[in-house]
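Students often ask what a holo structure prediction actually looks like on paper. The answer is less mysterious than it sounds. You provide the chain, you provide the ligand, and the output is a string of discrete structure tokens encoding the 3D arrangement of the protein together with 1-O-phosphono-alpha-D-ribofuranose.
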Amino acid sequence: MMIPASELILRPDGSIYHLHLLPGQVADTIITVGDPERVGEVSRRFDRIELRVEAREFVTHTGELNGQRLSVISTGIGTDNVDIVLNELDALFNIDLKRREIAAKPTSLTFLRLGTSGAFQSDIPLDSVVLSTASLSLDGLLPFYPTTAVDSGLSAALSRHLEEAGTPLPTPPTVVRPLLPDFLVNPDPDRIATGITMTASGFYASQGRVLRLPTALNGSVLEALRSFRSDSLRITNIEMETAGIYALATALGHRSASLSALLANRAQGTFSRQPARTVDQLIDYGLSLLTGK
Ligand SMILES: O=P(O)(O)O[C@H]1O[C@H](CO)[C@@H](O)[C@H]1O
Ligand SMILES: O=c1cc[nH]c(=O)[nH]1
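The corresponding structure tokens follow.
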């Protein structure tokens, strides 16, 4: 069935609307970062760069490292942007843009997010890295995708825990899990912690921060979230993209993993003294996982 021009929007040169990319310009292994400036920090480590495209906050570089073709793209901040990036990248591979038809044989992609985040537990050190083995969506995107595979057991356990604590959330807790790429199925516990990453719709009140305005995520709600346990899982960190990436990637048949460098510790009220160095180390680690070197 032909997808109408209002739904699948192309630029006059045939490129996809927001990302300004054409089929073939993106590798099937894609690093996502929030900050557009981080794209160059990643690609300057490539052996060769074949493409640089910039459109709004979406900067894309494609190149090669250790014989592997890679793309790195900035999503900007928030799952509203993740919605655009995941749908448009998927369309480049899985929709015939000229005929406006879904491809007969889907291509599965691999997404690795290299982001920054705030630690949620006081024992998780600043400047360390967390792999999100699940993500708690507080961002509002997921209800619009009814085929999202929600971990209903974990979501219900968290709901119960919050109700018992008398601290329900402003939105019902929805936990999603990724189809992890092979290189992160058994993460090295000496290098990275694992846990549930909360994905918020904003940076301030939606993450429990108070400057001049109060937040619905007040001290007792944060404490209830902090004390949640399910087997060995607990909520480790907060950021603004992972749940959207996990939900859409999984629903579209792609693998995804999110690694976060912890620049803040929200339980301790501290912030990294070396944020650039920590992000550099995360990039090196992510690239070594992707290329096996
Ligand atoms: O460092 P990035 O990847 O942008 O990620 C984090 O930083 C931004 C907020 O400062 C949000 O996008 C959050 O998810
Ligand atoms: O606390 C933090 C730090 C980085 N990014 C976030 O979204 N929150």
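Residues 33-35, 77, 115-116, 203, 239-241 surround 1-O-phosphono-alpha-D-ribofuranose (ligand 1) (CB under 6 Å).
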